[in-house]
């Protein structure tokens, strides 16, 4: 059966509700925040109540009157973790579901208490979204005439939470699309913002085979103010189903489960690492999803990890870095005055700062290969690789900052070692993730003291899953903010406006994503980075020549040299991992198919090099350099990619023989075949 018919709604919900002035103001505030993006909902309520002693066979909503302190504590824990919107414990508080527990007459009281507890916990620090779930009727039951009962139950539920003072109506976990559309129609007359969340199957399709974009359009047509999805699966599924919802004129909310549940000692446990969860939160935001939250299995720890991604999304707006994920932090506020510095505004001319700066100043092409620190202390293989790259004509190497969240030698220490033992002047990544505002300054001034001048300044993705899952992202600054700080140091002024004893001589590069979902925002950000002090752009790898051409055409007007990022794929599995797990990396379906077919022939690595060389060839003459990120540190793959693009430097001329010294009489040096 497909699209079971639903009778048209002929009457408003059974209420003459009118929102209060406070509700109207908070509702307008929510819609403004949702439109701007970077809003964080809380996580699961039922999971938390279960873990804190409420048995699965009990009615969780009844806890609003039997254990109100416990419910309020869950709200407080989410607020402390960084949630900006608290969701009430009213998901199943409709007449149909409550009747199963003998509580059908408690609809009004349980919903009123649920809203009150969330409101008291939120105070002025967060908004309150009333959770309204499906009635529990199946699609078959609805198609056989249960629409009247569903309409009555949903209308009563919505009226109860609205009258109790909710700021937002969150219609969630509906797997019958027609029932969700009915709920939206019933909710709109309240005058409160309506969030409509559909739950997809593990396949990424709706219960009747609907694709995410089609579901999204129907929710928009129904009148929902915010659309999206929750439950159904972990962050991977939520990315798959919510990314296509972006671009329809409505903010999009994604609330993932903490992975899929596993049965452990008779209990359904969600085992996804919160750190793993936060990586996908970051990826969702970069895809254009504007609101995040958690569903089944998520905890305050998951929300705390997502808060760093939300903090970054807030920080990219003009007006400066955001210091926290509280609701107050996203309110408009005046930014401190900062000078708009042009890229060579430092007191040391660009050509005199480093060998890289000299090449950029002369307009010569630059080639860089990523060469990261080892897990231990032995740098001999890195030195050997750097010498091999230099001998082939590569002009520099760049060194990541804590790659893959594993413990590595500091990249500044490795850069100093390469300066001492190779002819290259390395570029070090500076990530805003791991150090506070003061720590970043100390770190970079120390790098300058050691002769490390070339930096690529990045905000950085949230800490990825590694051996230290409790490591947190700091993000006191984002990349634009840090570029401004470094430009000030180059001009001889510290962030407090005081003159420094002497100026620094940093050469600052920055990153860009030609395949960014919000492409216009990416270009605006790049202009801000240029004005903040970046002198060269190093792009993320791009596998679609059309995206490369578009970006190069649009970014050329900014007046900065552009280095094209290339990442030769090592295998089909490597390509799929990058596409699904690395924010900013998108491998088109045709390229994935090429890699799959090549791997079946035993030519996966060679095909990956061919793909990278094709991208380079398409951009030849349009870029000012190339930045190669070889997989798994295989620097020879970078040389294969650059073959024909670089030329080994000519050997230095042999020194002229020294003139013979003047002889004194009788020295004998010209006697007999001396």
Topology:
Elements: H1 21-36, E1 39-40, H2 46-51, H3 63-66, H4 68-81, E2 85-87, H5 95-99, H6 107-122, E3 127-132, H7 139-163, E4 168-174, H8 177-187, E5 194-198, H9 212-222, E6 226-230, H10 235-242, E7 252-256, E8 261-264, E9 267-270, H11 274-286, E10 291-294, H12 300-315, H13 355-362, E11 366-370, H14 380-392, E12 396-399, H15 411-421, E13 427-431, H16 437-449, E14 454-458, H17 479-490, E15 507-512, H18 519-532, E16 536-539, H19 545-555, E17 562-566, H20 572-581, H21 589-600, H22 604-619, E18 625-628, H23 635-642
Parallel strand pairs: 1-10, 2-3, 3-4, 4-5, 5-6, 6-7, 7-10, 11-12, 11-18, 12-13, 13-14, 14-15, 15-16, 16-17, 17-18
Antiparallel strand pairs: 8-9
Q: What is the C-alpha radius of gyration, as a whole number of Å?
A: 30 Å
Helix content: 40-55%
Sheet having the most strands: 8 strands, parallel
Number of helices: 23
SS content category = alpha/beta
Number of strands: 18
Would you tell me the overall average pLDDT? 85
Question: What proportion of the residues form beta strands (DSSP E)?
Answer: 5-15%
Described by the principal axes of the CA atoms, the overall outline is elongated
Which stretches are low in confidence, meaning pLDDT under 50 for 5 or more residues running? 7-14, 263-271, 315-344, 658-674
């Amino acid at each position: 059966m497909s699209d079971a018919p639903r009778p048209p709604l002929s009457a408003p919900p059974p209420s003459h509700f009118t929102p209060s002035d406070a509700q109207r103001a908070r509702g307008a505030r929510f819609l403004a925040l949702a439109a701007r993006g970077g809003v964080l909902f809380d996580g699961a309520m039922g999971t938390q109540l279960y873990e804190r002693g409420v048995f699965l066979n009990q009615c969780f909503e009844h806890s609003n009157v039997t254990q109100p302190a416990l419910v309020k504590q869950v709200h407080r824990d989410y607020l402390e973790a960084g949630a900006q919107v608290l969701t009430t414990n009213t998901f199943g508080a409709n007449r149909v579901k409550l009747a199963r527990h003998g509580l059908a007459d408690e609809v009004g009281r349980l919903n009123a208490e649920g809203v009150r507890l969330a409101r008291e916990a939120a105070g002025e620090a967060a908004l309150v979204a009333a959770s309204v779930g499906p009635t529990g009727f199946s699609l078959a039951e609805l198609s056989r005439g249960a629409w009247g009962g569903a309409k009555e139950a949903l209308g009563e539920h919505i009226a109860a939470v609205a009258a109790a003072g909710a700021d937002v109506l969150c219609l969630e976990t509906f797997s019958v699309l027609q029932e969700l559309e009915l709920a939206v129609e019933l909710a709109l007359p309240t005058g409160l913002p309506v969030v409509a969340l559909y739950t997809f199957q593990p396949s990424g399709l709706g219960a009747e085979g609907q694709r995410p974009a089609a579901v999204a359009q129907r929710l928009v047509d129904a009148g929902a103010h915010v659309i999206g999805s929750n439950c159904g699966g972990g962050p991977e599924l939520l990315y798959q189903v919510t990314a296509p919802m972006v671009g329809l004129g409505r903010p999009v909310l994604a609330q993932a489960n903490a992975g899929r549940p596993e049965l452990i000692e008779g209990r359904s446990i969600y085992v996804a690492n919160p750190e793993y969860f936060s990586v996908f939160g970051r990826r969702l935001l970069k895809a254009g999803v504007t609101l995040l939250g958690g569903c089944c299995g998520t905890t305050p720890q998951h929300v705390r990890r997502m808060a760093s991604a939300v903090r970054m999304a807030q920080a990219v707006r003009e007006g400066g870095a955001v210091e926290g994920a509280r609701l107050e932090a996203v309110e408009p506020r005046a930014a401190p005055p900062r000078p708009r510095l042009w890229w060579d505004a430092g007191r040391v001319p660009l050509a005199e700062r480093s060998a890289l700066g000299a090449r950029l100043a002369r307009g010569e092409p630059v080639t860089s290969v990523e060469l990261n620190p080892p897990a231990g202390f032995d740098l001999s293989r890195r030195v050997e690789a750097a010498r091999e790259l230099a001998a082939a004509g590569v002009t520099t190497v760049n060194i990541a900052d804590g790659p893959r969240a594993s413990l590595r030698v500091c990249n500044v220490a490795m850069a100093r070692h390469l300066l001492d033992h190779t002819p290259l002047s390395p570029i070090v990544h500076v990530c805003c993730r791991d150090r506070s505002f003061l720590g970043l300054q100390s770190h970079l001034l120390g790098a300058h003291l050691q002769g490390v001048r070339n930096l690529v300044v990045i905000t950085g993705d949230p800490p990825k899953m590694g051996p230290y899952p409790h490591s947190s992202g700091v993000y006191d600054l984002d990349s634009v903010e840090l570029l401004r700080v470094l430009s000030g140091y180059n001009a001889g002024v510290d962030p407090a406006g005081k003159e420094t004893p002497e100026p620094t001589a940093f050469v600052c590069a920055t990153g860009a994503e030609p395949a960014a979902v919000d492409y216009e925002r990416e270009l605006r950000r790049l202009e801000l980075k240029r004005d903040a002090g970046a002198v060269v752009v190093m792009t993320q790898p791009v596998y679609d020549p059309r995206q490369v051409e578009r970006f190069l055409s649009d970014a050329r007007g900014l007046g900065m040299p552009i280095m094209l990022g290339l990442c030769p794929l090592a295998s089909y599995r490597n390509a799929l991992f990058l596409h699904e797990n690395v924010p900013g990396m998108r491998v088109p379906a045709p390229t994935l198919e090429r890699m799959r077919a090549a791997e079946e022939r035993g030519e996966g690595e060679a095909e990956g090099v061919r793909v990278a060389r094709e991208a380079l060839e398409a951009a030849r003459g349009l870029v000012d350099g190339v930045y190669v990120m070889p997989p798994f540190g295989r620097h020879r793959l970078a040389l294969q990619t650059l073959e024909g693009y670089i030329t080994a430097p000519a050997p230095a001329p042999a020194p002229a023989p020294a003139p013979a010294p003047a002889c004194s009489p009788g020295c004998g040096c010209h006697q007999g075949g001396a």
